[in-house]
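Batch job 17 of 40 flagged for manual review because the log was empty.
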Amino acid sequence: MKLQGIGKGHPHGVGKAIDYDQNPFIVIWEVTRACELKCVHCRADAQLTRDPRELTHEEGIHLIDQIYAMDNPMLVFTGGDCMMREDLFELAEYAIKKGMRVSMTPSATRNVTIERMKRAKEVGLSRWGFSLDGPTPEIHDFFRGTPGSFELTVEKIKALNELEMPLQINTVISRYNYDSLEEMSKLVAELGAVMWYIFLLVPTGRGQLDACISPAEHEKVFRWLYELSKTAPYDIKTTAAQHYRRVVLQQKMRDHLVEKGEIHYEDTITTDFASMHDGLKRAPKGVNDGNGFVFVSHTGDVLPSGLLPIVCGNVREAPLADIYRESKVLKELRQPDRYKGKCGICEYNKICGGSRSRTYAVTGDYLESEPFCVYIPQAMR
């Protein structure tokens, strides 16, 4: 399916058609799996030292070239802790000089120094993401498995603000912080974030199913986020929570902000003023695992996402473009009508489709229905 681009500054170009069967909107590269934190939900099951099988610097440069050639999608460096990789800024600078929009999500540890923050700004990094999973040290430090992590994270965020680097705060919602979201939303505002990136826990890696909130609680969170989006001084975006788009559209219909009838992805967007700070535009349609989104592991394995651990190929053995375009798994993920159960017949499946990662983690089948969605499609009523 081809859709028009979303304006000036979009990495794919102004008004240029994007075909997700051919190219992704965003590529996440796990540059290392090393990390000093011990997060209870870590999807990577991170380790303290770097894996000797990591892509080398030369392989990383070649990967960046391959990513750029796929119509220049957004590029995010992640980990583990991407700061554990010594050539991180050399890789970022190389990509930025090619004209790519690059952001990173390092862990808030002693590795994040003022000098490195300044270096990130010098090379032209678009946005910096820090994880903060609770409004208090008790909640956040438990989540991160490291005493003192909360205070250190806030300290690093304040330093980042002084450098006027656009800040994204990432929060994983689970049983551990579900009752503290109101306080958390206020803290995100106080810390000057341009975006609050909400992750709904997927039980993979160290993440456990009993730590996930219930389907009804997912719905409650989504409705609360929609109301918050009306007044929050930051954008709200979700990951592994594709059904938030459905809730936004339903709430906009109730508020008479959009007409009932034909479903448009644009109607599921609340605000997009973060892009005024850093030029990182939202995707022009419902990106999902393998559909406009692809993940490259520290060893070069290509996955639909970091939360959906199915290896579709390896960039050491085949070009990223070939893997993305030809993988059976990725091609199936780009066909929502092939989804099973209610997701396959839901009128929202083109803009939502459910979290393929959570579906796989819970059912073992990435085409099954999203197990944490309460909505009953019209075709089943």
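Reviewer: the log was empty due to a logging misconfiguration, but the result itself is present. The chain is about 30% helix and 15% strand. Unflagging and moving on to job 18.
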